[in-house]
Specification:
heterodimer, A: 194 residues, mainly alpha, Four Helix Bundle (Hemerythrin (Met), subunit A), 77% helix, elongated, B: mainly alpha, flat
Chain lengths: 194, 113
Amino acid sequence: MNIPYVVEERPDSGLTNGKLGIWLFLASEVMLFGALFSTYIILRVGAEEWPHGELNVWLGMTNTFILIGSSVTMVMAWASLKMHDFAKHRLYLIATFVLAGVFLVNKYFEYADHLRRGEGPAHSTFLAIYFTLTGLHGLHIIGGMVVMLYLLGPGAKMWRTNPEQFTGRIEYTGLYWHFVDLVWIFLFPILYLL
Amino acid sequence: MHSDSESVRKSIRSYMMVGAALFVFTAITVAVNQVHLAVPLAITVALLIATTKGSMVASVFMHLSHERRWIYGALILTVIGFLLVIFLPLFTVSDTIGTPLRASHSAAAAEHH
């Protein structure tokens, strides 16, 4: 039995299952990060002092550039499929994957530097919320990389059997990836600059 | 399908423009931070720029500028939930608003001794 509305849109909503599913998932993600942003505000409002200059702004800015770049390559990976250029799509998706990897490597050096100086999550309220927010964000990066790896590997076969469904999968992965970028756009100023 | 790929081809220019604008806004955020504004102003400026950047990502990269009604409906509910999560807990600390935290703490400490 075929599952309906995988490729064709439902007549009443105009949406495919995947499109509705990923947006509902992202809505739950907004609430997850929203709860942690709320925690950040409460901790900061209640704190007598809040550290400034604890984090390396230049490394944070570099990572922001990297994630923005990866969002551009991700949307181009989808656009290439729409224009039936599978080879270009793969190049853009690989670029997105590599940029995500570079982001994590930068984050590793940042974490390692803090931990070497004994500045773990238990060191201060600021570092506790810093490690929680960036750690959860990092897990989302890893999740996105796993999906991209699948779509570059075994998942790519679908392009030959069902190109429209494959294009849909890239679009949903892209929506998730742009959301991860969007979260970082807010994390960068509140943790590194303010 | 042809018109679909044609419209995507036209969108590529806007993806590139938005990508470039996001880079520029990030640089501006860091540049403003180097000026060392007063904290409330610095927070306002940084969050305004971040909101602008976020809106650009959502509307262009995530295609929210021309999405279906059901998605908008789900997102409106999400925004309401998000605002509640952000602002509701602040009521628990609202009794300290306008009270110098250090002064009240040191007064309490003095009273204790």
